[in-house]
Each structure stands twice: as C-alpha cells, then as structure tokens.
What does this fold into?
Amino acid sequence: MARTRLLLAAALALAACASPPSRSGPILLVDDAGDTTALAGPAARIVSLAPATTELLFALGAGDRVVGRTRYCDYPAEALAVPSVGDGIAPSVEAIVARAPDLVVAYRSGGNQAAVDGLRALGIPTIQLATDLLDDLDRAALTLGRALGDSARASALVRAMTDSLAAATVRVPEPPTVFILSWDQPPITLGAGSFLSQLLDRAGARNLFADQPQPSFPVSLEAVASRDPDLILVTDEQEPAWASRPEWQVVPAAREKRFVRVIGSEFNRPSPRAARAVRELRRAIERAR
Amino acid sequence: MKLGLLALLGVAALIGGVAIGAVALPPGEVIAALLHPGAPDSAIVWSLRVPRALLAFAVGGTLGVSGAALQALVRNPLAEPYLLGISGGAGLAAVVAIAMGLASAWLLPALAFGGALVASAAVYRLSLVGGQRLEPRTLVLAGVVVAFFCGAIMSALLTQTDAPRLRNAFLWLLGGFGGASWPALGAFLLYAVAPLLVLFATASSLDLLSLGDETAHALGARVERTKRIVYFTTALLTAASVAVSGMIGFVGLITPHAIRGWLGSIHRRLLPAVFLASGTLLVAADALARTVVRPAELPVGAVTALIGVPVFAWLLRRSLA
It folds into this structure.
C-alpha cells in the first residue's frame, strides 16, 4: 500500500512537471491492488464499474468518454444515458467487452478478481480502485486523471474536494453520539470503517460504534441500549416502523423517535458531493436535537 | 432421573442466558434488575435478555421435537424441518420480501410463516401416493425437491438484489434472536403450544410408526391419520420458529439422535427430553452468539453447529464403543 502511494506520488510529480493534457504515448497506472497497467494513450472508451468512479469521471469532465456503467451508477443524471453493463460486483465480462472499452475501472473487491483477470486476458486494460471511504477519493481521482491524460484537472478536483470538505467540516466540543441503523432485522450498524461514520465525524457528531473497526456488523440491542445514543441515523425513505417494536423501547432515542434522516446516494458512497452531504447531515442533526 | 438432569441443565442455561450478554453486568446487578423492575439495568435484563433466552429455549425445543417426530414419521435419520422443504419455503418468502424491499418488521414473520405453509402443503400433495397414502420415502424425496426448488429461486433472486440487501437477506437466513421481545415470545407460544401438545399426545403412535407402516397398522395404529397429524403439526411448528428466528438448522437433526442414544427411542420419554436438550443447546448457542464478538453478534445457527457437532461426534463415538 505504502509502495503504491509512493509510486503514485512519483508518477504524479512527473506528470505535473511536464505533460500537456493530451500527450500521447504509454501511460502507466498503478491501481489499488498494486497492479501496474499500461495504456497506449489517454483512455477514450471507459467502462466504469462503480458508482463512485462514474461520478469522478463525470466530475473530471470525461463523461463523454464513459461508454459503460453499472445499474447503480445514477449520478450525475447524464450518467443514466450511458448503457449499463449490469452489476459492478462479479460483473459480466461479456457485457463489458461488448462496449469495446480501452479501459475498465473495476471496484476493488475479492469478488471481482476473476472478472479483472478475464478482462486482462482479453487484452483490455483494467484497473481496480477502492472507493469505500472518503480517503479513497483523492487517490481514485488522481489515478483516473492519469488515465485520462489530464492529471492537472484531477489535481484541481482533488484540491477543490479537499477545500470544500474542510469548509463543511464542523468541530463541536461535545459531539452527540449517533447510532447508525442500516438494517433492523437483525439490527445491523456501521462501524468506523464506513463512509457514513466518516461523514458523521465531519458533521460534528460521533458514531456510537466508532470503536468498532469493521464497516458493518450485526449488533446487540443490549449494547445499543447501554451506550444510549443521542440520535439514530436512518437512511430509509419511510418512517422507521421498527422503532415502535417492543424490543426497541429499551433504547431511549428510539422510544423518543430522535431520528436523523438523510436520503440520497451522496450518503452511500464517497463522491465529489461529500461536502454537500456533510452540510446536509449537519443540518439534519441540528434539526433532530 | 435423566429427564430431571436435563431440566436442571435447561434452567442453568436460562440463568446463564440472562446473566451474560453484550453488556457485562455483574451478577448482583442482574439479580437486582430482575427483582426490582425500576433498577438501572432492568430494561436490558427484563425487556431483552429474559424474553430472548426464553424464546431461544422455546424455538430450540420446538425444532428438536419436530425433528424427532419427523424422523419417526419418515423412518429416516436425516429427516428434519430443513430436509422436508418447510424451512425452504419460509426462507424463500422472506428473501422475496427482503429483495423487493417489502420486509417490514411485522410483515417478514408473517410472510415466512405463509411460505412455510405453502411449501409444506406442496410437499404433502406431492407425496400422496395414489391420492391417499402418505408414503414416507416419497415424502422425503418431495421435501428435498421442494427445498432445492426454493433454494434455486432464492439464489436467482439474490443475484438480482443490490449488495446491502443481499447481505441482510443472508444474515436473516442464518437465523438469530436479535428481534426477541415479549410479544414475539407470546406470538410464538400462541402458535406453538397447541401443536406441541398434539405431538406429545401422538408419542405412542410415533413408537409404532417408526416400526414401519404395516407393523404399525397390524398393531392397531391409525397410520395415515397419525402421519398426517405429525406432518402438519411439525410444519406449523417449523413455520412459527422460522418466522421468529430465521432458519436455524442442525438442532432438529442432531439433538434427537443424541438423546435417542442416551435415553432410548420410546417417544413418550424421548420427546420431552429432546425438547429440554434442544432448548438448552439453543440458549447456550445464543448466549455465545451475542457475547463472543460483542457488541457485534454471530449468527446463532453457526454457533449451534460449532457447539453441537463436537458434542455429537463425542456421543457417536461413545455409543459405538
């Protein structure tokens, strides 16, 4: 990982020194799996297999070079005009090949290695990017910028995202604790290794289970009750029905319906919209208190 | 005597299930919470731990007794609610609900219950030979076929579901008592007590059934009627169990065998013993499930097998020695 970052930094430094945006010639990409992929020139036909990378490509002004997306890539609205190749996890190699891409951007996950190997065996340059957390965003943007032959624009996007996030971030002396409920049967919450937990940190609140490193896990109601959250974060559209179930009455925040409700894909995945998500979350928390 | 021992074990497991949990409470505080409903931790103990331990016990016992009765009915040591397609129908209905985003807290158990009943009716209809006789061998085959069919639809649906929902559906299928409450316990008992009593009442017919249809008939059993009663009561019991706790396998398969090896196969004694042993096993498994990785939980079905298989292997070796 450290080596990847180092290589990437070196590559970026080189790119920043002397590269006009549309320089032709081979481009070397080092992805989040540590693999090096060579492109003959800037990618012109890209299949993006994660909603976050699709958003980044559009934000980098390369929306017209995206020729394939997953069925979950729903932002920006123009992305919906791009043909879908189906799922982003265990994707259909055939559907991707049919789009004749010169670069495939896969979501880094164990379930995708077979598809990545298959695409590479067919001679299609394929990179794997992790896009789970806020910290993944800059790295992904810079790698995509290199692939597009426009590192300068990627650096500018990274600066803009960093600045807007910094501006949106709130620090309060005593942040309220927020229990994130992602599913009620069985109760599943998100730990520190989740994007929403990171958004909460920046929105002046604290994930009730920030001491748990995993992204998500089934949690004991008992533990929720004894940690006694100030608020409960729900991302459901409808009014949470579970809150009136008897077993939830031991959690005062559920009993008193102290909910923070946020709806939208900007809360599910890191994207250039993260700063906006932080501000919206902050408003929702203030409304709920 | 042996029954008394099992009952003691059951009580010990229940006490353990109430004493430990995701939050470490000293025994003194648990007792205080039990005695004084106003004590600081009484909400955790009374509203969560007590109904959860009791529900685990009741569901465990029910699955065990269902397994024992089905094994006698089809004269097949592998018989259990899973094998006979009943859990499959319940699981399928639940997965459909979760995949379609319909899974509200109240709807899910009801749909699981409905799915189990439909699946068991299908199995029953398939295994009526010549329109009247319930043939045990056909029943097993029909059950396996329906279970596979449900499983196939589930796999197909799950690949079409987005990732978080998929994970949730799997977790639900693995079973657990995270949603236990007094009303859930009440609803379960409402469904389960009468069928359980019916099963206990058929104990002596089960003894005859396990000898084979002809022998049972010759000895005066009303074979077809008993088989139908046993089949539908176990279906009802399994449906109720799946509705409150998801698909918990293994208890219904292994405990009856373990107890049979120890107590013999007279059902009048076997069934209550299996009830106590299975309940104890599930309470212990659930206590581990919610404490080993606290504040997270493990799926109770996995823990049941992790405890049960070594115990069973030991019993098996001992009974062969």
Observations:
- The radius of gyration of chain B is 20 Å.
- The mean pLDDT of chain B is 84.
- The CA atoms of residues 208 and 218 of chain B lie 10 Å apart.
